[in-house]
Structure formats: structure tokens, C-alpha cells
Amino acid sequence: MDLTEMKADPVHQAERRSGSPSREPIDDLPQAGAAGGKKQAAAHQAGGLDVEEIRAAFPALRQEVSPGVPLIYIDSAATSLKPQQVVQAVLDYMTIYPANVHRGLHTLSERATEAFEGVRDKVARLLGVEDSGQIIFTRGTTEAINLVAQSWGRATLKPGDAIVVSELEHHSNLVPWQMLARERDVELKYVELTDDARLDLDALDAALTDRVRLVAVTGMSNVTGTIPPLERIVEMVHARGARVLVDAAQSLPHHRLNFGRLGVDFLAFSGHKLFGPTGIGVLYGKRELLEAMPPVSFGGSMVVRVDRQRAEWNEVPWKFEAGTPPIAEAIGLGAAIDFLSQLSAQDLAGHERALLTHAHEVLGQIASLRILGPADLEQKGAIVSFTMGGTHPHDLAQLLDRHGIAIRAGHHCAMPLHVRLGIPASARASFSMYNTIAEIDRLGVALESIRLLFRRHSHGQVAPRPATHAATEFPNG
Ligand code: PMP
Q1: 45-70+344-458 falls under which CATH superfamily?
Q2: Active-site residue identified among 136, 413, 421, 440
Q3: Contact at 8 Å (CB) between 194 and 163?
Q4: Is this structure's pTM higher than 0.85?
Q5: Which whole number is the average pLDDT over 336-365?
């Protein structure tokens, strides 16, 4: 791929590239551009990816945080940066065809409808599922999981049933189940983790009694980066006749699995972590489940007929999409998937693995720094959360910002996981395709200087540091 060419003419590039949709999942697509030809020779990072070319596609990386201090963005687990191609696709919709979808018979509305509905096909290909009617647009992962809880959950679960989650889960994959469990008198069970925060399959096996109707599990922890063995989990859960929901908010930007082949029943993800805009996400569900599920939000678009007292629901997926959908956001997500599909999944994985390995090496050398989660890097993705003795994670984040380094600190919306790890909060560096080995080296240097600053402070040699936050003060992570 020539990303600089794409920058110059993003709309036409995107149109040309999306012109002949293939039914094959993205990891099986023949890879052109970045993975092959002349560009390969220019690749200068591990994994065969031309990182400088990738970086040039992300305008946010051209800025300095303060004069002379370039941005090092390692907070991609919170939200990813957006390539110019995505910005341009949203801008084009806003400026050229900003019409509503479905209802209009005029040219602009038809164009908007075509672009919007076309994104379902792109998502289906990304996930490796055949039927794009199984793709429901939501505002994000959180709304997608709530939809399953409020629709499938309320329609299916009976008192005495059980739902299983893991201790790794984000609040978005916990609280909707807590609410449902309370409402339906259902038990909410937790699969315990090993001490290095891996999901224990023996514990899962023990939790899978005949009462279990659903296992809701993350594809990748947003704190420890743990990647649970999904294939094995789906096999085990299906063997007991229960359903599997995968929270792919963190995993999808890094690992493109064929979820159709894997056989997951539900999957949720957010566009904004996948190089797309905020305000758009996806719920994938197996058709037979979606057909049987009642809608939970009511109004225009989700009906085919309305009389004075009752209404008839539209077909799946529109039955679940009441009101004007997030059109610009969906079109942006489509452009993000186009962008991603031009890159070799293998090269991306190789690059991120190199970043993760280097981050473990560099951070592992800093005294009093504890990396959370699996020591075996095969079992985790490109997230490194840590604590550093004597420093509060919020202070670390604030001081790193002075070096231009953007990380996240807090409980990262995973409080039960932090309780399991025995800490109130952590600092998190999360990497993406646009990060470099040199940036990780700068993170290491900055952390070491902060460590020394705190050590001098504790010996009474330096002036006050940023306010230390009490454990109870943490806002959402
Ligand atoms: N699950 C995981 C694992 C996440 O990391 C996040 C976002 N931090 C969510 C769910 C929620 O995503 P959103 O806020 O986009 O709905």
C-alpha cells in the first residue's frame, strides 16, 4: 500500500479499494502493498511494516505536545488515533452527501444509504462472517453488550440460571450482567485467574455447570493484555449447550480472527479503538439468535407498520436500530476497515510483538517497576500495565505527559481485576501500529528519570511533586 498516495486522494483510493468486495475474511485476503513489492525493501521495523509510512497517515502524530516535545501516543487501548483516510471519509459525507439514510428517494440519500449499508459488508468481512445482516450498528461495545443483556438475556434467562464472566472483564462486560442477574434472579459467576492473570481453563470447566446459559469473556484484557484461548473456550462452552459472547473491543484492533469459523454467538466491538470515529460500534450475533430477540429501543426505522395501538418490527438488523443511525460514524468505520485491510495482518502482528517484547525488556530493567499480567508474551497483546514502587500511577501519567508521552492511569474500568491483582490502580502503556522501538526507549528513559526524582524526593532532596491521589479518588480509567 502507498499510504502517501492514499493521503493525496483518499476518497478515490478508498472507493477503488472497496470496489470488489470479497466474501473472504480479512486474514485470508491476498495482501498487496505494504507486505510486498518495493515497499518491503523500505521497511525498517521488525515485522516487515513500513512504520514511517504508517505514521505519515496519522495526522495527530505530526504535533508537538509542547515546543520541541513530540507526541508519543501509547494510549491506544483508550482510543486509537485516526488515519487521514477516516477523517476524509467523514468529511466527505458531511460536505458532499450529508443526507439521511433509508427513507429518502433522492440521489444524496441513496448515496448515503449505499455508503452506510456497505459498511455492514466490510464489518462482516473483517469478522469472517458470511451474512452482513447479522451486523448491528450500536454506539460502541458498551451499548452492544447492553443490547444482548436487555434483549437476549431478559428473553432467555430464568431464575436459577447462571452467567459466567472472567475476572479480566471491563466494567462494560460486567455491569450489564450484574443488572440482569439481579433482575432475573440469576447467578453471576467469575472464572478465577492464575496469579499472572491468565484465564484458568480448569476454573472455567468447574464453573460450567448445567445452569450456565452464557459465558461473556474478553478477547484481550484492557489492563494486562491477557489473550484468553477463545477457540478452546468456545468449544468448552458449546459442549455444555451455553452461548459465548466475546468482548472484542481490545482484541480486534490487534488480532483478526475468523469469528464465523470460531462459532462465537455474540461479539461486540467499538469503532474508535479500531482507527475509526467514536459513537459507532457493532454487535454481531448469530442470525437465529437475533431473529428470536426482541428489540429494546423503539421508534422510527425499526418498524415496518404502525397502527394506533401496535407496531410490527422491521427485519434484523434494522429491528435493533431505532432512529437515525450514526451515519457519519459508520462511514468513518468503513474507511478504517479499508485502511486496515490494506495492511498485512501478519506484518502488523509481527510489529506489535516486537514492540511488546521491547517494552518488556526496557521496563523490566527499571527498579521497583512491576509489570502486570502474563510473563509469557505469547499469551498477551500489546498492552503493558505496571506499577512503580513509591509512585502513584496518576503522578506517573502526569509526569510522563511532560515528556510528551500519553499513557493512562487508574483502574481502567476494571476494578474487580485490580482487586484480584491486589492494587487500587495501575499505569498502562498500550501500543499500536504507529508506535516505534525508539518511542519505547524514550518511555524507559522518562520512567527512570521519574523514578530517580521520586527517590530524591523521598530522601527530602527535591521540591514537591504533583499531588498524590488517594485510592478512592480515581475517576474512570
Ligand atoms: N471492553 C473493553 C475490553 C474495553 O477496553 C472497553 C473500552 N475501554 C470497553 C469494553 C468499552 O468500550 P466503549 O467505551 O467504546 O463502549
Answers
A1: Aspartate Aminotransferase, domain 1 (3.90.1150.10)
A2: 413
A3: no
A4: yes
A5: 97
